[in-house]
Design goal:
Number of strands: 11
Largest sheet: 4 strands, antiparallel
Mean pLDDT: 90
CATH architecture of the largest domain: Alpha-Beta Complex
Strand content: 35-45%
CATH superfamily of the largest domain: Ribosomal protein L6
CATH class of the largest domain: Alpha Beta
Distance between the termini: 67 Å
Structural class: alpha+beta
Helix content: 10-25%
Low-confidence stretches: none
């Protein structure tokens, strides 16, 4: 642990969390990490909670890892992984190719509950895993009339009534 940085090492890898040593103190005692603040200003209090959460996420990430699951819904919609590249057939005239950044793994499996394919994004950095999942979802967001598109596994789509329902 160097000044202004906390390094977390575990079986899945290692992560570093940077912080402002003028505002925050971080100590390791008996295997637990204690995050404190130097004063009671609003800025120091907000940084205290942020750094505590970032360190907790780093500890969870290097020990268990994080996963986000996405479902692909739609007739003819497919997802396929070749190495680090995810190829999506999602209703466009062309295939959409997404390359996973370093530290994030992408896999596919058969979907359940109406989904044809499930995309599993996993890694040790919670922010990076969430950003990759959001980037993939952005390629074809679920539309509100039939629900076709890419959605998170537990996402609820509020369907709109079509024009025939108006009467």
């Amino acid at each position: 642990m160097s000044p202004g940085s906390v390094s977390v090492i575990g079986p899945k890898g290692n992560l570093a969390v940077a912080f402002d040593p003028a505002q925050i103190t971080v100590e390791v005692n008996d295997g637990s990490v204690q995050v404190g603040r130097r004063d009671e200003s609003k800025f120091a209090r907000s940084l205290h909670g942020l750094i505590r959460a970032l360190v907790a996420n780093a500890v969870t990430g290097v020990s268990n890892g994080f996963q986000k699951r996405l479902d692909v819904h739609g007739v003819g919609f497919r997802a396929d992984v070749q190495g680090r590249k995810l190829t999506l057939e999602i209703g466009y005239s062309h295939s959409v190719v997404y390359e996973a950044p370093d530290g994030v793994e992408i896999a596919t499996e058969d979907g359940q509950g109406g989904a044809q394919v499930r995309i599993v994004v996993s890694g040790i950095d919670k922010q990076k895993v969430g950003q990759v999942a959001a980037d993939i979802r952005f390629k074809r967001k679920p539309e509100p009339y039939k629900g076709k598109g890419i959605r998170y596994q537990d996402e609820v789509i509020h369907f709109k009534a079509g024009k025939t329902a108006v009467g």
